[in-house]
Amino acid sequence: MIIKPRFEPEELNLLRYLYRRLELSVKDENHYLNLEKGFAGELQFDRLMQEVPDDWMILNDLLLESSNTLFQIDTMLIAGATIYIFEVKNYEGDFYIENEHWYTTSKTEIKNPLLQLHRSETLLRGLLKELGFNLPIKPYLVFVNPGFQLYQAPLNLPAVFPTQLNRFIEKLKSTPAASKARYAKLAEQLIFRCLKENPFLRVPEYSYEQLREGILCTTCTSFLTPFSQGILICNECGCKEESDSAVLRSVEEFKTLFPEMKITTNGIYEWCSIISSTKVIQRILSRNYEKKGRGKSSFYVSQ
Ligand SMILES: [Zn+2]
Question: How far is the centre of ligand 1, averaged over its atoms, from the C-alpha of 21 (Å)?
Fold first, then answer.
């Protein structure tokens, strides 16, 4: 059972919007594409985890603190009386390990994911102790991409490779059951301890004036153009969408990008840029948001 669902990370959301609306530096663009890939890998692993028994507890995307140090766990599974933690990697291509350092075949060194996993394990152990629990922790690196190959991996590497994933889940299922109530309390406390905001967001600086206005396609994130009365179309993928829902999405995007700015009819009209009149925008806003103030100074807030 999923106790804590996985949401799209705020950082990814912001970068997704900025990627289309702003010229990102190569560094920011790579960071964005890595996040996108990483998140897709996590979702892929989530689908596999749906198969574990229903009375096991899955906690996704935990950002916790122990000994004044933050750490993140992609997926935690409380199964029986054991805690599994999974660091999910969507690496693609050939990699090798040499003297505990990890490299791509073009000899570029990458961050050793094992160090990250062990760091999380140690910090989690400290936190569990603080909460009065003493459970064994089993950490694993999970590689989900079938196009991943790791050479010179030591046999005792706590890793699950793409071809082993199904077998691994099958084996997990044989973990003996244990008292659920006690561990439900632990899950509750861990969620309570989770930080709501990630202080390490890596998002470039931007201002409204720098961003390209318009409405993004939900499927391929290209810009939509008008098609017919009340319908917009994406010329890249052919996807059509009613302007009402497209405008509402754009309002939410605007709120994410500019949390300090007010939502006004004129502001959203300009932001969407392809809606024929402010009247349409006003109708959509007044149906879905609560209006504050009167006349020119009126604005909208979530209901
Ligand atoms: Zn599209």
Answer: 15
User: Is residue 91 left, alpha or beta, with left meaning phi > 0 and alpha meaning psi from -120 to 50?
Assistant: beta
Ligand 1 centre and the CA of 33: distance in Å? 18
How remote is the CA of residue 189 from the centroid of ligand 1, in Å?
42
CA of 212 to the centre of ligand 1 (A): 17
Nearest C-alpha neighbor of 258 from the set 196, 201, 198, 209: 209
Instruction: Tell how far the Cα of 293 is from the centroid of ligand 1, in angstroms.
Output: 37
Per DSSP, the chain holds a count of helices (H) and strands (E) of 8, 15
The CATH number that domain 2-193 falls under is 3.40.91
> Domain segments of the chain: what residues?
2-193, 213-302
Distance 235 CA to ligand 1 centre (A): 7
Distance, CA 238 to ligand 1 centroid (Å)? Answer: 6
Sign of CA dihedral 20, 75, 61, 50: positive
Distance 90 CA to ligand 1 centre (A): 25
| Residue-by-residue pLDDT tens, the chain, 303 positions | 899 999 999 899 999 999 999 999 999 999 999 999 999 999 999 999 998 888 889 999 999 999 999 999 999 999 888 999 999 999 999 999 999 999 999 999 999 999 999 999 999 999 999 999 999 999 999 999 999 999 999 999 999 999 999 999 998 888 777 667 778 899 999 999 999 888 888 899 999 999 999 999 999 989 999 999 999 999 999 999 999 999 999 999 999 999 999 999 999 999 999 999 999 999 999 999 999 998 888 999 998
Tokens 């008008």 sit at which residue? Answer: 226
What is the number of residues in the chain? 303
